[in-house]
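2 proteins. here.
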Amino acid sequence: MLRVRPVQISTILPIRYFNHAAGLVCAACVASLVAFGASAEENAAPVAKITLHYLTKDYDEPIPLSLVAKILTDNGLQGARLGVADNDKSGRFVNQEYTLVEHVLPADADVAAEAKTILADGPAAIIADLEAEDLLAVADLPEAKGAIVFNVRLSDDSLRAQQCRKNVFDVALSYAMCADALAQYLVWKKWPKWFLLAGTAPSDADYAAMVTRAAGRFGGKIVEERVYEFDAANPRTDSGHQQIQTQMPQVTQGASSHDVVWIVDTVERFGEYVPYRLAEPRPVVGTQGLSAVAWHRSYEQYAGTQMQNRFERFAKRTMTERNFSAWLSARSIGEAALRSSKTGIPDLRTYILSPAFTVAGFKGESLSFRQWDTQHRQADADHGSPLPRLYVAAGRLSAREESERHARLRHA
């Protein structure tokens, strides 16, 4: 039988010889690792640098009617910063490096001239937080023909139709998407009769037209339409609040029989003070009350809570709808570069418009762009007070809601 007897190293070699030998082995290992690292560094692929540009002007923004809402000076910009930071984290694993260049211009600056500077070296990815005239001025530049211009501010449906540009990718929800989403929910709830109360801003007229369109598409009926014309000068002052609040019963009195009041106040002049101040108790929907938005601070499904918390730690405030659109724009570039292994803007644009492209946006389903008008497909988050938990896709009920709806109809 073979017997194994443990042998101490010290019985073979004196300790001093063992320590010396161990030191030589360690030194050799360190030298090998250093040599391997230097060789790997020499053979590593070059880092691909991808630059995104955030282009905006110091516009005279509408002041939030509610004193609870803060007046923001970086609405949208913080979302782009976080999106680029997220891209950079994942890009490190594939030798991609992301940079955000911020172009914040005075209100009277020539935005087209700034865009020419951005595009001087070729097509670029531009997150455009611009009004319609400036957005089209940038998009119509010959230098911008091959660019990717993300619209994160405007909901005008004309930008998706008559004024549509092939290089403008609309990430912001359109008024038609918001109106369609709410209309389907109201018809499903058997609230088909709508009293429409709209403001006087041009954007109010655009949204109101889409409400009329949605009524025709989904079986709703606008029983009466009124325009709220009162201007409180500074509605955030105590007297401004009081004037608007006391007028709500008066302006809604005597309306035709209706199920809901649909508010169209895109610039926040009166809508916040319509709920609970009507002449007759009715649900309030539209731009205030139960609303269809791309993002809201109450959204928590599909890891939305984690996104809310990350943004609050990053920006020291809650995430707005425009912040989300800017973040999603930056992430679209990062996701396209990661999945396609391309970094050139023309290549990324081709991939983003291909059926292969999707990007995660905390909506429970993959998001993408329409090929025919480059509008971003995404779910809207309906919110109100109290907050419902219904999420509808742009222009149609989501698959989950459709299945639930059909199940209810079968058991009705």
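next one coming up
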Amino acid sequence: MAGLLVILAAALNIVVQLRGSSTQFPTRYEAVVLVNGALYFGHLQGYGGRSPILTEVYYIVSQQDPATKQVKNILVKRGKELHGPDRMYLNPAQILFVEPVGPDSKVAQLITQANK
């Protein structure tokens, strides 16, 4: 009986440790897709934990030229909104998936240009 309690205590400790841990990404920026389809780029901290935070947030806005009907995608830095946000506190249940942004990708290049 004592052996079973030790095993249960060890299993509970592992579960608690895993729930409190967060994933570290090797890249500077990550793409975060939410369950509502919204896509954000930025530096994700605390992923896998209870309160993930996305900083240096960017998103894509599509604009159509009325004359040519061509659609142009523009990367916009979050923070220009009326409330001036500098980060996003994410609900972990609303994160569909996360992918690293490659350092040589078009998104990484646009972020670098925006930061100049």
